[in-house]
Amino acid sequence: MGSMDPIWEKANPQLRDLTAYEPGKPIEETARERGRSPSEIIKLASNENPLGPSPRAVEAMRAAAAEANFYPDGGGFALRTALAEKLEVSRESIILGNGSNEIIEFIGHAFLRPGAEMVTSENAFIAYRLAASLFGARTIEVPDQDYRFDLEAVADAITARTRVVFIANPNNPIGTIVSQEAIDRFIARVPHDIVVVFDEAYFEYLDNPPDSLRFVRQEHNVVVLRTFSKIHGLAGARVGYGVGRPELVRLLQKTREPFNINSLAQAGAIAGLADEAHQAAAKRLTSEGRAFLENEFSALGLTFVPSVANFVLLRVGDGKQVFESLLHHGVIVRALTGYNFPEWVRISVGTPEQNRRCIAALREVLRLA
User: Fold this and answer.
1) What is the value of pTM for the model shown?
2) If you write DSSP's letter for every residue of 112-174 in order, what string do you get?
3) Separation of alpha carbons 351 and 282, rounded Å
4) 231, 247, 275 - which closes a domain
5) Does residue 52 contact residue 233 with C-beta atoms inside 8 Å?
6) What is the DSSP letter of 215?
7) Rounded to the nearest 10 degrees, how much is the dihedral formed by the CA atoms of 350, 212, 105, 201?
């Protein structure tokens, strides 16, 4: 064990008990372990876009590769300008991250430290808790209500030590959302000096999304996180962004590494952002696939949480065992290690064929008719 090595005595103490983030199992690793071709494996574990990136984004990244000898635009001027125009905010209101996860780390650098507290849901995205631990802050986890954030309870949990509140909306790994009315009541209760982060990685999949950007425009200390990893199909490029009032963003910019977004990723994101037809196709594929999965789960008598995102949380009895058994069928789902869901797995929406294969494998693993 690493903690037995004397080097751990010299390290920051919060690192000793920190559990590293565990990503979804890669296709290549599963293929090696099972002695199968990667083409035989389907991955429905990481909420990726099965449609892939926009062809325009792929072409833009190919063109950008020819100039990879030059450093990227460290300020991301063109991408921030494109986002500002789309969102109707100023360019100074936008910060870019190597995935939106990096912006969570920026917020930690800026506001979390020993003695400080971060408040979130007990079932929120695990990255918030990991960030708090990394900076020595305490995480206050509030129970959910009907599998969704209880914003009244979150507001009740805020103390003089609270620095940041994280709200995933829609929430990963559950797939539920809180309403505009609940958000409005919450913001009205939160002290103005608390930073509220709305993590909206799955925002583009919503039919009637809440408007959290209104609080940015009203100069609240709100940061809205979004990503190119989901609807845009650019998870491998690692591009996320945060939107906040300019002075708050200026503060966060001081925590950012130079050149944190590479030139290929910036080019792909700009082109992908402009391809609204591709985004619409991805949303349609996801909506239809999610409905198919949920209908099949109902027909099989399985319990699930109705989702608005590109994944569904499914109760299977022993999540880790079902995860392992599905691997034998070449299907990778997500066992929720680190979350309070040992009896559940999270299944991402795939292509129609992938969704059918997943259901067939589930029937066999769970021995359902």
Assistant:
1) 0.94
2) --TT-EEEEETTS-HHHHHHHHHTTPEEEEEPPBTTB--HHHHHHT--TTEEEEEEESS-TTT
3) 10
4) 275
5) yes
6) H
7) 0
Specify the residue for token string 């690192």.
Answer: 15
In this structure, the answer to whether residues 96 and 34 fall within a common structural domain is no
User: Which residue(s) pair with 145 in the sheet?
Assistant: 148
Surface-to-core class of residue 122, CB atoms within 10 Å of its CB (0-12 exposed, 13-18 middle, 19+ buried): middle
For 207, the token pair is 């039919």
Name the residue among 82, 58, 74 with its Cα closest to residue 273: 82
Asked if 297 and 245 sit in the same domain, the reply is: no
Q: Please check whether residue 112 is in contact with residue 164, taking contact to mean a CB–CB distance below 8 angstroms.
A: yes
Nearest to 54 by CA among 206, 228, 207: 228
Is 179 in contact with 210 (CB distance < 8 Å)?
A: yes
In the predicted model, what is the mean pLDDT of residues 144-172?
Answer: 97
How many angstroms from the chain centroid is the CA of residue 67? 30
What percentage of residues in the chain have a pLDDT greater than 70?
A: 98
Q: Check: CB of residue 196 under 8 Å from CB of residue 222.
A: yes
Residue 364, phi then psi, degrees to nearest 5 = -70, -45
pLDDT at 2 over 70: no
Beta bridge partners of 142: 121
Q: What share of the chain is helix, strand, coil (3-state, %, to 5)?
A: 45, 15, 40
143 lies in the same domain as 60: yes
Q: What is the pLDDT of residues 332-365, one digit of tens each?
A: 999 998 899 999 999 999 999 999 999 999 999 9
203: Cβ–Cβ under 8 A, 6 or more apart, which residues? 170, 209, 226
Please list, in sequence order, all residues whose beta carbon lies within 8 angstroms of the beta carbon of residue 131, skipping any fewer than 6 positions away: 104, 105, 107, 108, 112, 118
Same domain, 94 and 158: yes
How far is the C-alpha of 261 from the C-alpha of 274, rounded, in Å? 19
What is the C-alpha separation between 313 and 310, in angstroms, rounded? 10
